[in-house]
């Protein structure tokens, strides 16, 4: 009798959930690091770029670029690169994501 993992159409759940967890952790860690670097007390960025608006623009660009890099990386290809539980819920609602995968992504993000 073949194992559950070798049956056609049965994709293991742990790989995409683990990839989603790693991708989310990387995005949060990088994003918070950019915010601290650009606005943290004693950061040299306030002297280099005195305009708070320009630093916010830079922070948003770096945060978004990090998300794009994660989505295009092998981690994003494995997980589907949702990184946000709302995106997983939307994919489930339109039938692009199976229920157990949506639940696993929501559980991982909480």
Could you write a compact summary of the structure shown?
With 110 residues, the chain is mainly alpha-helical. It has 6 helices and no strands.
H/E topology pattern: HHHHHH
Round the Cα radius of gyration to an integer and report it: 18 Å
Low-confidence segments, given as residue ranges, are 1-10
Strand portion, in percent?
under 5%
Tell me the overall shape. elongated
Oligomerization: single chain
Q: Give the total of domains.
A: 1
Mean pLDDT level: 80
Verbal overview:
- By secondary structure, this protein is an all-alpha fold.
- It has one domain.
- Helices cover 70% and strands 0% of the residues.
- It is built from six helices and no strands.
- The longest helix has 26 residues, at 14-39.
- It starts with 13 loop residues before the first helix and ends with a helix.
- The relative contact order is 0.15.
List keywords for this structure.
disordered N terminus; elongated
Task: Set out the fold topology.
Blueprint: H1 14-39, H2 45-48, H3 52-72, H4 74-79, H5 85-93, H6 99-109
Helix pairs in contact: 1-3, 1-6, 5-6
